[in-house]
Amino acid sequence: MRTPIIVGNWKLNKTSREAVAFVKSLWSLVADVTDIEIVVAPTFTGLSVVAQALASGNIRLAAQDVFWENSGAFTGEVSPGMLKDVGCDYVIIGHSERRQYFGETDENVNRKVKAAHAHSLKPIICTGESLEEREAGKTGAVVKDQVLNGIAGLSADQIASTVIAYEPVWAIGTGHNATPDQAQEVHALIRLLVSEIYSTDVAAQVRIQYGGSVKPDNTAELIAQPDVDGALVGTASWEAESFAQIVKAVCNVFFIN
Ligand code: PEP
Q: I need a labelling partner for 51 at 20 to 30 A (CA). Which of 14, 65, 68, 179 fits?
């Protein structure tokens, strides 16, 4: 069985002080959760203090982006070694906001994914179609390109520890989540793509998260889909209470039903 993974993407929110207060209150709400990976992704400036606040708990740390070189004359960038050094286990790569506002390309996503693995950081590769692409019937083709380009050149071990997030752009921050059937259809496609390149055994190990307006009240139906292994949560992860409710909803589906 794949361990469910729930990631809170804080985007451009929370000062260091707010971040520490948040994780302390989140931890008090989810301290008893053991069989789910709970991950928070603060801004770069919050990583170090959050890592210290999390030191003995069951919550892991992710960064929201990374550069592919490990050092050098690259003003403004943060390297995989630096993220590992502050205590990150995961890094989000290719989020649609980075693709949309900062010119992130599939080629650069792939460089970052390889650099992350080279430093024992697990990448969370974001994929997903725009509304226009969905309406034009291009969802499968768009996601296929993003997945194949993003994972190009990875070994079987590397892909098995890579997380792939399906986040339809039209669902991010809009309050309109994909239906469970829409999510399952794309997640199954992603797993099929991985199995065609590697094997069904390898594909069975890859965790595929859904993201896009996940809330406490829609988590259960999304996570109950056979190929949905977790959630990448934006807005609803910025309040400890609602993020904890999402975690609990996942626990209920996986470990009680
Ligand atoms: C995201 O930004 O990854 C996201 C899924 O945001 P939201 O939950 O707000 O739709």
A: 68
Range of the domain at 53: 5-254
**Collapsed DSSP state (helix, strand, coil) of residue 40:** strand
Residues across the chain:
257
Structural contact between residues 70 and 119, judged by C-beta atoms closer than 8 angstroms: yes
Q: Which atom of ligand 1 is nearest to the CA of 11?
A: 2
Give 199 Cα–ligand 1 centroid separation in angstroms: 30
Could you tell me the CATH number of the domain that includes residue 58? 3.20.20.70
Which residues does 246 contact at the CB level (< 8 Å), separation at least 6?
A: 6, 214, 215, 216, 219, 231, 233, 236, 237
Active-site residue identified among 37, 97, 133, 167 = 167
Region 232-241 average pLDDT: 98
Mean pLDDT across the stretch 126-130? 98
- Ligand 1 atom closest to 214 (CA): 8
- Per-residue pLDDT at 167 exceeds 60: yes
CB 107 within 8 A of CB 97: no
Q: Alpha helix locations (H) across 103-168?
A: 106-118, 131-135, 139-151, 156-160
